[in-house]
Amino acid sequence: MSISNYLEIKLLDAVFNNVTYTAGANIWVSLHTADPTDVDATAAANEVSGGSYARADTAFDAAAAGATANTSLESFTNMPAVTITHVACWDSSTAATNLLWSGALTASKVVNSGDTVEIAAGDLDVTLD
Questions:
Q1: Burial of 84 (0-12, 13-18, 19+ CB in 10 A)
Q2: Which residue among 12, 31, 75, 104 is the one 20 to 30 A from 113 at the CA level?
Q3: Other CB atoms closer than 10 Å to residue 64's CB: what's the count?
Q4: Exposed, middle or buried: residue 15 (CB in 10 Å: 0-12, 13-18, 19+)?
């Protein structure tokens, strides 16, 4: 996964300019049908919609060696018929928020209407590279 321009600026300002950055209380994971792009993203480009789809409130483990991963199974139930190609992390559950990280799946996932999509604990890796 790659860091968004928004978060790059926030972290650089925090480290080099002593500008306070307050992270949100939760991280929300979203599914996408194409790259949401990291350029000043404040809208959920290509985010799945329909069915019972909603962003998942996701916990991550303590970072080590420049990486972290989700700590529990994330389930997206009653999905619409889509092909998922990307996943992203946001600072809120609503569409008009700040993108933090995004990345392509190792393989696209074709989803039928009513299916459940799951991300197993430890399968959502976020790295600084």
A1: buried
A2: 104
A3: 8
A4: exposed
Q: Are 53 and 76 in contact (CB under 8 A)?
A: yes
C-alpha closest to that of 55 among 88, 22, 102, 82: 88
- Alpha helix segments (H runs only) across the chain: 5-16
On the 0-12 / 13-18 / 19+ scale of CB atoms within 10 A, 83 is exposed
pLDDT by position in tens, the chain (length 129) = 789 888 999 999 999 999 999 988 899 999 999 988 876 555 667 899 999 999 999 999 999 988 999 999 999 999 999 999 999 999 989 866 889 999 999 999 999 999 999 999 999 999 886
User: Which residues does 74 contact at the CB level (< 8 Å), separation at least 6?
Assistant: 29, 56, 58, 118, 119, 124
DSSP state of 49: -
101 bridge partner residues: 3, 89
Q: Domain limits of the chain?
A: 2-127
